[in-house]
UniProtKB/TrEMBL annotation:
Alphabetical list of NCBIfam families matching this protein: AAA_KGGVGR
Native species: Amycolatopsis mongoliensis
GO function terms (MF aspect): ATP binding; ATP hydrolysis activity
Residue span, CATRA-Associated Small Protein domain: 449-529
Organismal lineage: Bacteria, Bacillati, Actinomycetota, Actinomycetes, Pseudonocardiales
Name of the protein in question: CobQ/CobB/MinD/ParA nucleotide binding domain-containing protein
Domain of life: Bacteria
Keyword field: ATP-binding, Nucleotide-binding
Length: 545
């Protein structure tokens, strides 16, 4: 999938635009994305100051030199890229060289004339190259209304991150530019989807003047509500989303050009890194799944943070204190099979202090019953697993009855460990589950989940019915991802009823909304992938012991 271009824009200066861009770029790079930042604030470049300590050398060219290359018939945008040190895949293109000739170089550019000469097509080629090699391309745009504003706000971006402060000038100017950009985009000769705008309230102080801050929150939502219509989930109120898209004023970070996300690795809710993580997660999701953000911010951010995470361990074995010896034997057998294993002993509080998991899957060794600690560990694991293919696999000791376990464990495929089936055999079967040889979810023979999903995708329903289907499909994603067979069966049955063909009753019948189609397609791809691996070992049963 090609990368996305985000322009960071503010109508007025002093709102923290470059600060926000730089910190979010670092976060996305840390989370495993390939990021390119361009300083397009040609008259007052400053983005590079945030990356000063990470730059390998001073820039020898940049955005303004693209104009010279165009006039000379050269196409070499890569030569201006500076890879930043110690920040994963984060590259930077400066505004230009830092010398006395730069100002004259900028002042000598006639942007309107350049477009008449075909510079737009040249930039389009640059854009194609950038989006082919990076997941995210961030553009730091000039404030106000300028000659290059249309390039940054209409021509290049897929999304516009609009930063403003709580005053009429800043809000009104930002809204005016957003409308101008939307109108200008419709006149472009290039293939573009509709421009979406992410309104970010910046430098907002709600600590000292809480009453006045709440009044201004209402003003902000009222003035910017139209910007949410093209992307915000219908179940989420703009006022709720606006709170998630607010960057607080923290005086400590107002001095100099700083990157707090480098020092605030696990920020608390009152730190600016916390708010920056939220905005970064929305951008990483390309403004999608905002219902999940509204429901649980921490789970939303954690899922995005881990979506490209390289886990230290393939599997973490949760051990009750009554089965330490048995668990150690199992871990030894897994290590022989080259599985990277971590262990957590009931009561290990270091697990709760971690910002994220260090293991992809969780193996729950259950001896008689699920302990309170293990229940909390499963809850924490699932909390961090939102939308990801990560599994909880129970292993039951000989005397443990599956039917007496809570549903979130008893409905999962489990393995049996005991006198007749030792650690070596269980370890081999466990590896089979990790490699996908055993499906995570069983459904009734007379209710095929793929068929039900296909029926749902092709249905025509009333909007209220689609709201119900959306809830069911979203719940199915979580159930399938967690391997909860019982819950999957219940939801599949409900979905079959919700999408059962009915006689037309009026004209208010619509095809599946894009969001629902995307969720169904994800489920179908997941089921197809698991079906392929399952056919390699068709004789597995639920109790593999």
């Amino acid at each position: 999938m090609p990368g996305s271009v985000f322009t960071f824009y503010s109508y007025k200066g002093g709102v923290g635009r470059s600060f926000t861009l730089a910190n979010i770029a670092v976060l996305l790079a840390r989370w495993g994305h390939r990021v390119l930042c361009l300083d397009w604030d040609l008259e007052a470049p400053g983005l590079g100051d945030y990356f000063r300590e990470q730059l390998p050398r001073a820039p020898r060219g940049g955005v303004v030199d693209l104009v010279d290359d165009f006039r000379a018939g050269r196409f070499e945008p890569k030569k201006y890229i500076l890879p930043l040190k110690n920040v994963d895949v984060l590259d930077f293109i400066a505004a230009g060289r830092e010398d006395r000739g730069y100002i004259g170089q900028v002042q000598g550019i006639d942007w309107d004339g350049l477009y008449d000469e075909g510079f737009g097509e040249y930039l389009e080629k640059c854009r194609d190259q950038w989006t082919a090699e990076y997941d995210f391309v961030f553009i730091d745009s000039r404030t106000g209304i300028s000659d290059i504003g249309g390039i940054c706000t209409a021509h290049l971006p897929d999304h516009l991150v609009m930063l403003f402060t709580a005053n009429r000038q800043s809000i009104g100017g930002a809204m005016d530019v957003a409308r101008r950009a939307d109108a200008a985009r419709n006149l472009l000769p290039f293939d573009r989807s509709r421009l979406t705008v992410l309104p970010v309230l910046s430098r907002f102080d709600s600590r000292e003047e809480y009453g006045r801050s709440e009044e201004w929150r209402k003003i902000v939502v009222g003035e910017t509500s139209e910007l949410y219509r093209t992307w915000l989930d219908q179940s989420v109120a703009p006022a709720t989303m606006s709170r998630h898209l607010t960057l607080p004023y923290v005086s400590y970070w107002s001095f100099g050009e700083q990157l707090p996300v480098l020092s605030e690795k696990t920020p608390s809710a009152d730190q600016i890194g916390f708010a920056l993580e939220t905005v970064a997660a929305v951008i990483a999701c390309r403004l999608d799944r905002t219902d999940l953000l509204a429901e649980n911010r921490d789970a939303y951010v954690s899922a995005v943070r881990a979506s490209r995470q390289e886990f230290k361990h393939d599997l973490r074995v949760s051990i009750p204190r009554s089965s330490v010896g048995m668990a150690n034997e199992l871990v030894a057998e897994l290590e022989k099979l080259e599985v990277r294993v971590g262990k957590s002993l009931s009561g290990d509080r270091s697990l709760l202090a971690r910002a994220e998991d260090d293991a992809r899957h969780l193996c729950l060794l259950v001896d008689g019953k699920v302990s309170r600690w293990q229940a909390a560990e499963v809850e924490l694991f699932l909390h961090r697993t939102l939308g990801q293919d990560r599994r909880v696999i129970p292993i039951l000791t000989a005397g443990t009855e599956a039917g007496m376990l809570p549903g979130y464990v008893g409905n999962l495929r489990y393995l049996r460990l005991g006198a007749s089936r030792g650690s070596a055999e269980v370890a081999r079967d466990l590896v089979g589950q990790l490699k996908g040889f055993t499906p995570l979810v069983e459904t009734d023979d007379d209710l095929d989940l793929a068929t039900v999903l296909g029926q749902a995708r092709g249905s025509r329903l009333r909007p209220s019915r689609w709201d119900l289907v959306d809830e069911l499909v979203t719940a199915l994603q979580s159930a399938v991802g967690a391997g909860d067979g019982g819950r999957t069966k219940e939801l599949a049955a409900d979905l079959a009823v919700a999408t059962k063909p009915r006689p037309p009753n009026g004209d208010d019948q619509h095809a599946a909304p894009p969001r629902v189609r995307q969720s169904i397609d994800w489920l179908l791809r997941t089921l197809e992938a698991r079906a392929k691996t399952t056919t390699q070992h068709p004789n597995h049963r639920k109790d593999l012991g």
